[in-house]
Design goal:
Layout: E1 7-11, H1 16-28, E2 33-37, E3 54-56, H2 65-69, H3 72-75, E4 79-82, H4 94-112, E5 118-124, H5 146-164, E6 170-175, E7 177-179, H6 192-201, E8 207-209, E9 215-216, E10 218-220, H7 221-230, E11 238-242, E12 248-249, H8 250-261, E13 268-270, H9 286-292, H10 300-312
Parallel strand pairs: 1-2, 1-4, 2-3, 4-5, 5-6, 6-11, 7-10, 8-13
Antiparallel strand pairs: 9-12
Length: about 325
């Protein structure tokens, strides 16, 4: 049973999913004491308009948790949501990606271990690598880039930590292709839905890879946040997919955007420049439904409609 005035930390809370999560927690738990930690490398203070909590501007790879928050037993945090990471999959500095993502996580685990503070952290569908059918959590990892590799190591470390400390609940969430409000600051790494919508609004044909039959499990950020909050009630540790369970093609996406924006642009196809590209992503939600009672509410049509209203009014 959670206290009526819980204390939560959200790392990466000025980022895309993190800011949406922070504001949703603030709404769901109006008496909660929230602390966001972010170094703004992939976040923006404007994402937290209306935020009423504390903020620590620090790099998690070097943060001294005990110095900042005191003894973990007396700090009294009910959960740590760890959303921070280097998220740019085109950054190929292997040391920077793995060091920052993994060592930041290790520091969090070391702080949380004495009190067994619940940890809910962002993994990624990128850990599955190339797939041709729905990805199940028990599938072996096949990271195609160093970002995905760093997430695989985080999953390994989390699994070992939970197994070694009875009663400590650590939940990893493998987000699929998340899109929605508060992602504009990401620039190039923002979702293709964001970029294609702006191309269409500018009167240009939306540019997608030949021949548009690549498929993605596009999950609206409101569903991703709902799945994340549901992890507060998980009874055991585990790693779970967060998606819609539906793969939709890039061509379908253009149709959905045209319908939502009242336009009729044909796609402009171009060659895919990426050597290691996931042509197909789709989440198997069996485990998430059982363990988290997670059920996505937004189809691609519904999510895009809601997002376009937020983007363009």
């Amino acid at each position: 049973m959670r206290p009526s005035s819980p204390k939560f930390i959200i790392t990466g809370g000025a980022g895309f999913i993190g800011s949406n999560l922070t504001l949703a927690l603030q709404e769901k738990f109006p008496d909660a004491y929230l602390t966001v930690i972010d170094d703004f490398r992939s976040g923006n203070f404007k994402n937290l308009t209306g935020y009423r909590g504390d903020f620590v501007a620090e790099n998690l790879a070097t943060l001294d948790w005990r110095e900042t928050f005191g003894d973990p037993a007396s700090a009294g945090f009910d959960a740590i949501f760890h959303l921070a990471s280097i998220t740019d999959t085109t950054l190929h500095d292997q040391f920077a990606q793995v060091h920052d993502n993994v060592e930041s996580f290790r520091r969090i685990l070391n702080f949380a271990r004495p009190k067994k503070t619940r940890i809910i952290y962002a993994s990624s569908a990128a850990t599955y690598g190339s797939a041709s059918e729905p990805s199940v959590e028990s599938n072996g990892a096949a990271p195609a880039n160093v970002y995905a590799f760093s997430k695989v190591i985080m999953d390994n470390v989390a699994t070992h930590a939970a197994a070694a400390s009875h009663g400590w609940i650590i939940v990893g969430l493998r987000y699929f292709n998340v899109y929605g409000p508060r992602e504009a600051h990401k620039g190039v790494p923002a979702s293709m839905i964001y970029h294609l919508a702006h191309q269409i609004k500018a009167g240009k044909r939306p540019r997608i890879f030949k021949h548009g039959e690549q498929k993605r499990d596009f999950v609206y950020v409101k569903d991703a946040v709902e799945g994340t909050i549901r992890a507060l009630d998980a009874k055991t540790s585990g790693i779970y997919n967060v998606g819609t369970g539906q793969a939709r093609s890039f061509n379908e996406l253009v149709e959905v955007l045209n319908k939502s924006l009242g336009t009729n642009f044909d796609p402009e196809y171009f060659d895919n420049p990426h050597a290691h590209y996931q042509d197909f992503t789709q989440a198997d939600l069996t485990s998430a439904r059982q363990a988290l009672k997670y059920e996505p509410r937004f189809s691609l049509e519904d999510g895009v409609r809601d997002y376009m209203q937020w983007l363009f009014g």
